[in-house]
Amino acid sequence: MSSIRKRKALVALLEDPDERIYLVVSQVIRFEGIEILDLLLQVTENPSLSDLHRERAKEITDLIRLDAAQKELSSWKESPEKDLLQGIISLSKIHDPALDEAYVLQNMESLRKDVWLELNDHQTAFEQVKVLNHVFFKVHGFHCAEGYEWNLDGLNIAKVLEYKHGNPLTVGLIYSIIANWLELPIHGIDLPKIFILARMDEFHSSVFTSHENPYGVLFYINPSVSGLVFDEAQIHDFLKKIDVTPERKYFEPASNTELIQRYIHSYEEYCKLSGDVNTLKTFESIKEWF
């Protein structure tokens, strides 16, 4: 039997009311992986089929996509590049298995191009960030969710790009990725409670000022306040306010792995507050091996 005929036969068996048959068939279908998704989608989108048939096809479709996303994260963890955007996309697929990766890349490229058109080599680092802030927050209208908006879509990069609204972590990392694509050294910092960015001092220009940053940072950026620029003294003030002992990691960029770990933790927190138990279990299992 050809692979196509075999897959069609397996999908047809999902309608069998015998639960024992379903358990066996579902495992075989899941093993087929993403190659069988088109056939499953044909079932889920066919109103003439029974509810049982369509519900089972939908359930297995989500499981196959989840398997694929977890496989992507495992490969990401082992990769030397650890591409931040790809890591965020893979995490978003856990919550949104139907996420359109091409849509994300298209919107990111459009945003990059709009910023690029406004930049030039004669601008200072501060002027470049001013341009980035204008295009990102004013022209495109990105803004961060308030603390009480516990919505999983706020961490889904596709939804954030669509609605220009999301968790400060997601918005801030989109900002950082666009900046890096344009060779602007702006990176995320794993600061407690809030997410901020660091504009690095790649030319050591701070040595000509009255105070040189010991962490190689020119200034800091708060994506929650439309890209507000500030200095390290305000980080010290914030840490004192929340009664946290200052550590070096709160003043310098985090690794991409650390940022993805923070993303996983944020998904866990959102799941707890929204009551999404099933998704919470998934992210807890991911955290155990990531």
Would you write up a description of this structure?
The protein has 290 residues and is an alpha+beta fold. The chain has 2 domains: 3-78, no CATH class; 84-289, no CATH class. It is 57% helix and 8% strand. It has 12 helices and 6 strands. It has helices at 3-12, 19-32, 37-44, 51-78, 84-95, 101-116, 125-139, 157-163, 168-181, 232-241, 256-274, 277-289; strands spanning 143-144, 165-166, 186-189, 196-200, 217-222, 228-230. Strands 3-4-5-6 form a 4-stranded antiparallel β-sheet. Strand 1 (143-144), helix 8 and strand 2 form a beta-alpha-beta unit. Helix 3 packs antiparallel against helix 4 (51-78), helix 4 (51-78) packs antiparallel against helix 5 and helix 6 packs across helix 8 (157-163). The longest helix has 28 residues, at 51-78. The radius of gyration is 23 Å and the shape is elongated.
Distance between the termini: 40 Å
Sheet with the most strands, sense and barrel status: 4 strands, antiparallel
Helix content: 55-70%
Q: Say how many strands there are.
A: 6
Helix count? Answer: 12
Domain count: the total is 2
Structural key phrases:
290 residues, alpha+beta, 2 domains, two-stranded parallel sheet, 6 strands
